[in-house]
Structure formats: structure tokens, C-alpha cells
Amino acid sequence: MPIRTNRGRTAVYRRLWGWPLRSPRHLATALILFSALVVVVGFVIPNALGPRSTANPAGTTTPAAGATSGGNQIGVLPTVTTSPLPTKAPSPTPAGTSVPVDLNARLAADGWVDAYTDYQPGKTTKEQWLDGLKPFTADELFPRLQSVEPANVPMVIEQAVTAAKSFPDLAEFEAKLESGKLVVTVARLPEGWRVQKYTKVG
Predict the structure, then answer these.
(1) Three-class SS of residue 175?
(2) DSSP character string of 80-149
(3) pLDDT tens digits, residue range 153-185?
(4) How close are the terminal C-alpha atoms of the chain, in Å?
(5) Which of the 8 DSSP states describes residue 37?
(6) 134 φ, ψ (degrees, to nearest 5)
(7) If you compute the radius of gyration of the chain from its CA atoms, what whole number of angstroms results?
């Protein structure tokens, strides 16, 4: 029969609340039931609500990582305005640029070629021939001349010494001999202009 009076309901509630306190067994049973209820509620409620949505709220947008809306944003490079580079100035004149022939270089070449071709068999010794070349010859070249047989050197110059190339510290001259062409390289050394190299062509 349903309980219709407040006194009857109060008696029923008092009996329910007092039941766990009647004995230790009732108290242990009540704690176990309460713990089970908490666990069930902890699993059931999240599943009932469904997974939390991570989508952006309506009407909001996330700026792209590569957006260039401003130069102060973290991870965004500022826009750089490039201007045309100024016209490159002409490079300075290199040291090897051709220059007018130095008079001392020409004199050294003339004197060396004259001494090189000035050998008379029976009248000029090899030592005399070398002595004539020494004032115009670099020290590094002189040992090579000592191994040359003067009798095999052409004696007739068909053309005067002419400048082929000229640089601040180096000059190249050519002389036409009876058996071809002689190319002489003269270098500016601490002791002055000296023949550093020679080559017979032809």
C-alpha cells in the first residue's frame, strides 16, 4: 500500500539511512555498493555525452602557418622589399695589364741577344762568351748557359729585337735569327732587368 503521509515517508527514510549503521556487515556492504555506483557513473556519463569536439567554433578561423598578414607574428618572416643593386664599379686594373715597354728592359734584351750571338770560332772562348752574357742574365738561368755549346748558336740576326709583350715587371722580346726566332723573357729583379728565360723557335 503506498505511503501517503509525511510521517510515514520520514519513517521509511530514517530506516534506509539507519540500515548501514545497524551492523559492521551492513556498513561494509553499503560502502561497496557506493563505490560501485561511483565507478559506473564515471564510465557511463562520459560515454553518454560522446567525444569532445575539437573543431573550431562557428564563425572563427585559424590563421594559416604560412600567412603573411604581418611582420610581427611569431614564425612569420617580414616582407622584405628588394631594391636594384647599384651598378658594379669597374674592377681595378690588374697587375698583368700590358704597359709601355720599359727602356731598361729593352736594353737588357738587346745586350743579351748581342752577347748570345757574338761568338767567333777560333777567336772567342766559351768563358769570354759567358762573360758577355753574365751582366744581362738572371742567376737562375746562368747555369743553363754553361751547358750550351757556343759554336751551335746562330750568329746572324736578320731582324732587330722587337717587343712582343710588356708588363710592369715582365717583358717579352723576339729576335729573328738565321735559323728561326729567339724569344727572350726579361724580368725586373732586385739587381735590375735580367733575362730570365729564352726559347728558340724553328
Answers:
(1) strand
(2) ----PPPPPPPPPPPTTS--PPPHHHHHHHHHHHHHHH---TTT--HHHHHHHHGGGB-TTTHHHHHTS-
(3) 887 777 778 999 999 999 999 998 887 899 999
(4) 144
(5) H
(6) -55, -40
(7) 56
Task: Give me the residue label for grid cell 548501514.
Answer: 20
Residue in this structure with the C-alpha cell 562520459, named with its chain if needed = 46
Answer whether 0.85 is exceeded by the pTM.
no
Give the H or E element holding residue 171.
strand 170-177
Q: Each residue of 40-89: pLDDT tens digit?
A: 778 777 776 665 555 454 444 444 444 444 444 555 555 655 555 544 43
Q: Tell me what the pLDDT averaged over the chain comes to.
A: 76
For 18-62, the DSSP string reads: HGGGS-HHHHHHHHHHHHHHHHHHHHHHHHHH-PPP-SPPTT--P
